[in-house]
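Troubleshooting: if your tokenizer reports a length mismatch, compare your output against this known-good record of 243 residues.
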Amino acid sequence: MKNVLILGATSDIAQAIAKKYAAEGWSLTLAALEPGLLGPIASDLEIRGDATVQTLEFDALDFSSHRKFYESIETKPDAAICVFGYMGDQDKARTDFDEVARTIGVNFTGAVSILNIVAEDFEKRGSGAIAGVSSVAGDRGRQSNYTYGSAKAGFTAYLSGLRNRLAKSGVHVMTVKPGFVRTKMTESLELPAALTAEPVQVADVVFQGLEKKRNTVYTLWMWRWVMLVIRHIPEFIFKKMKL
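Known-good structure output:
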């Protein structure tokens, strides 16, 4: 039985991904900052999905603990999916560097730290798949969330380089770029229905994308074209836009 490691497993998207993999017959290793929240999730997967589940504590910002964390996994994964992230407050980040450091630390540095360790193991074994959940926010900096966007842009570039490096070793790396997703975090926002995905849709794209060895996937698919347009807006016009 194949095993998938899901990092940041308490989020709505991560739970949908876990259910998808359980339904496909995989065993699961769920890791999150608050391991107490993983108990009910694991029980549901074990009862409804008949899945084998291990739960572990994982702190994205405790970089020195990441190797010990990975070594503690009973069944080393065949696939690893990095879902954790931190949106941050852009207005606060203008004057509070702690907010900047947290945003970059979670979305970029923490992800790179743990995925370097996963990549090292997969490369030695000559197999494996990695998916990193980045964001369309990293495709172009916007005044409303450029600290978060810059961290995700860095993560996207990291995944691209990692994909290039590991290809010759038989290890696949996929970048996931969600747009709007209907989750607890966004439930107070008025999101455009046509551009907003449900967590289960993201989960399906992640699973199918890794199975088909896609390099980059957008959720929903039209975000690829939306961001293509946004990236090509001339800077003198873009500076005047309230984005």
